[in-house]
Write a structure and sequence with these properties.
Two copies of one chain form a homodimer. By secondary structure, the first copy, chain A, is an alpha+beta fold. Helices cover about 45% and strands about 20% of the residues of chain A. Chain A is built from nine helices and twelve strands. In chain A, a hairpin with a 2-residue loop joins strand 11 and strand 12. The longest helix of chain A has 27 residues. The two termini of chain A are about 30 Å apart. The first copy, chain A, binds a DNA duplex through helix 7.
DNA sequence: CGTAAGCTTGACAATACTCAATCTCTGTGG
DNA sequence: CCACAGAGATTGAGTATTGTCAAGCTTACG
């Protein structure tokens, strides 16, 4: 899987808040070749102190909590270009674990810690972009609550696919309405709080209706508009725009 | 409904992080008699700029989002002593609406804004307490995801009641395992993402099993331990302790 | 080939929702 | 003081959605 470049990361941050040239250089300097981890590796353990912010430069991960009963709940999918352990509190303890779904690479960007801490006196634009990124995380967590609390099986799958597409598009990791999608139906089941069998039938339904094709490590959204109206994802998108 | 006092709020913040005497005084000075709002009043509108932090001093509210279909999802219950619109970003836009469930009173504490912004150079202990409070909000949002994604009807109701009890206990608003609980079964249904009828049957089941009594504006947890093991809320409690 | 991961299918059971009606309060106006 | 209205709670019957179990299929790959 391709590793993101400093240019990718810069353009993502630029889309959140305009960066000064010096700030863009800071980003370039920080992004070194990533450290590889195998699928299943725990990148951040719930309850343990966060060492400092990192960027996922390649592969997919998820933020998750395991219940005493062994059941597992996923809070968010972490995509290339996303931050892990970004927090404005110094030395916080992680509220959830972050686990690699595929083989991944992460890059330590502890150099961003002072930027976060100093509240934009230093590198104002970068601080804006980082806090906005974390605000978007929060927004997506609310989306997840809506998915789990209010949406039917087909709405959940549709809305997740739309979210993944729009996030990957920002990183330039889509081809039109298609994209690499390494989640198995089992992953989707855990993420969306439904059974594997039911995910399977829902995916088949989307296919039969000509709405989307999901499988073989890829997803293609054939009818994004119908998917959007189906899943009320557009409301979410509107909310994103407002989240300044 | 009784309005909280400065002493209540101080002891809550103290429980998060020790406060200096001067800091405690700051809190006392800020907490004036609350502004009343009727049930149903929108305290904070999604998408609108947050004017500044406020404290809910009396009554209950919820953070919620309304979908285009008219369906509604609740993210959190806001209890007396909780902050509304607390954010370390200056002038953020609200990600969700906050609406009064009962008649409420709110007190403007815009005076805390500089404390948040200055990262604890000023009033270190207070800053600690405030950021921890917001971290606990985040943790409870994760709890809500788990409830909606992984738990059965009875587990959801049990876990919500335990959460409410433990939060109210910190504010001194419980009598043993009983407390004032103004949510109707309709409120519970919206909050827990289930139908009114199903909530009703679940509440009856809890009563029949002798686990808890819910209704008439009160809740009593007869067997908190069994409720805890039933709902895996203890795991949550452990996680709370870790969230430093 | 043989294996394993991922996907698919069918039959059945459990959980939860909808609709519609009834009941029990409580406060209010006549 | 009573009738009434409305909010909240309860019940039953029928349906829809989702989960469970168990088996079989397909594909990639050593």
């Amino acid at each position: 899987m391709r590793e993101i470049t400093a240019a990718n990361l810069k353009s993502r941050l630029q889309s959140l808040s305009p960066l000064q040239d010096t700030e863009a250089d800071v980003v370039s300097d920080l992004l070194k070749p990533g450290v590889p981890h195998p699928a299943g590796a725990v990148l951040l353990q719930q309850g343990e102190a966060v060492r400092g912010p990192r960027v996922l430069t390649s592969g997919w991960a998820w933020r998750t909590r395991t219940l005493p009963s062994g059941r597992q709940q996923v809070f968010a999918i972490v995509l290339p270009g996303d931050f892990i352990g970004l927090c404005w509190r110094p030395n916080p303890k992680a509220l959830s674990s972050t686990v690699a779904i595929t083989p991944v690479q992460t890059c330590d960007v502890a150099g961003l810690q002072p930027v976060m801490a100093q509240k934009g006196d230093l590198h104002r634009g970068l601080w804006e972009a980082l806090t906005l990124a974390s605000r978007h995380d929060e927004m997506r967590l609310l989306d997840q609550v809506v998915r789990l609390g209010q949406q039917s099986a087909i709405e959940r799958v549709a809305s997740l696919m739309l979210e993944l597409h729009s996030r990957l598009a920002i990183m330039g990791m889509t081809e039109g309405y298609g994209f690499q999608m390494p989640l198995t139906q089992e992953h989707l089941a855990v993420t969306l709080g439904m059974s594997l069998v039911h995910v399977n039938r829902t995916v088949q339904l989307l296919r039969k209706e000509g709405l989307a094709e999901i499988g073989n490590g890829r997803a293609t959204l054939h009818e994004p508009d119908r998917l959007r109206s189906l899943s009320s994802f557009d409301a979410t998108a509107r909310a994103y725009a407002e989240a300044v």
